[in-house]
Amino acid sequence: MRKRLRVTAHGGIDDIARHKPPGKFAFLPWLFMISGDVQDLVRGELPLPWLGGAGVVLFTGFYIGAVVHGLDRKRLGTPLPRLLLLGLVLTTYALTIGYGGDWLLCFPVLSLASGIVLRGERMLGFAVLGFAGSAGVIAGFHGSVENSVAAGYGTVLSGLVTAAVLRLFETVAELRATREELARAAVERERLRFSRDLHDLLGHTMSVIVVKAEAVRRLGPRDLDAAMGQAADIEAVGRQALTEIREAVTGYREGSLTTELDRARSLLDASGITTAINQSGPPLPPQTAALLGWVVREGVTNVVRHSGAGHCTIEVRGETDRVHLEIGDDGCGVGSGSGTPGTGLKGLTERLAAAGGFLNAGPDGRRGFRLVAELPVDDNEEERAA
């Protein structure tokens, strides 16, 4: 008996080294632990063999049912595995109290089934300790103190080690699923970033090219030198666009607010829109300036493409903790007067919200359109960048 109890204490630890979690039938060989008792029953060495045989049949059926359903994640939370475990408990106590002796090996098998069905629950510890105490007490009545300690020790380890191994596999599976979900989310964020950057880059660049091409067409018949200057600007804008697209693809592009303000003035002037740009306040951290540069780019592109305005004002007011950007015109608004922000403004709104700021855009009175953006200034950002 002592040898078999030692096997009980350590037999399930090998499952930890497996790459795959134990299947529904992986724990069925544990039933061979009571094979010696069944042989004694068959040889007629125990009283009332028909009653013991019925107990063995019930014990086997309840054990298989509890293990198979307990390893099924869909049925684990249902009452069926617990009812089967309860039947196994009653059968175990009936066999061990009635026969005693080597039938005490039913307790480690019972504890193992409890570890499967009750894994992750607080009551598992109480149940295993209760079974171990019962095994020790019954062993004390039918045998020596050594058998009592061995029975309790084997019962505790069978249940707790089984539960720990299964929870380990389940935790690893949950972590793997979480990691895959985070990877999918990261891919989706990168796709969204790339689509926003590409939209902003191409929308602005194509607007500049169209406006300057129109200027070439107007100036060509009467001022060839001015038309050639606009054509050179188109070439420069195209080359710059190629560079920015490559940077956007690699994720390294960081816009400059000052550069975008200069480009905005050039684009608005080429479009025949008078411009007033005012910038005040302390220098901005690179990330804040980059976000506002995107806002200027998208806002001015919308003014040129949709507003039909004759005048545009851009104002940047920096404070110690926040920076305020405002773009206004006297035209008919985005979307030919609809006042409905497009994809670019929607994407910028999400970007600024993620950075703790906001962006509002809409009609400004009876005529015109106004875009207002505000961002917090992180004093530590510049130090981190350095």
- The low-pLDDT segments are 1-18, 335-340, 381-386
User: Which word captures the global form?
Assistant: rod-shaped
Overall strand count: 5
Report how far apart the termini are.
Answer: 71 Å
Query: In sequence order, what are the helices and strands, one letter per element?
Result: HHHHHHHHHEHEEHEEH
What is the spatial order of strands in the main beta sheet?
1-2-3-5-4
> How much is the average pLDDT?
77
User: What is the subunit organization of this protein?
Assistant: single chain
SS-based structural class? alpha+beta
Q: Report helical residue fraction.
A: 55-70%
- Alpha-carbon Rg, integer: 39 Å
Tally of separate helices: 12
Portion in beta strands? 5-15%
Largest beta sheet, briefly? 5 strands, mixed
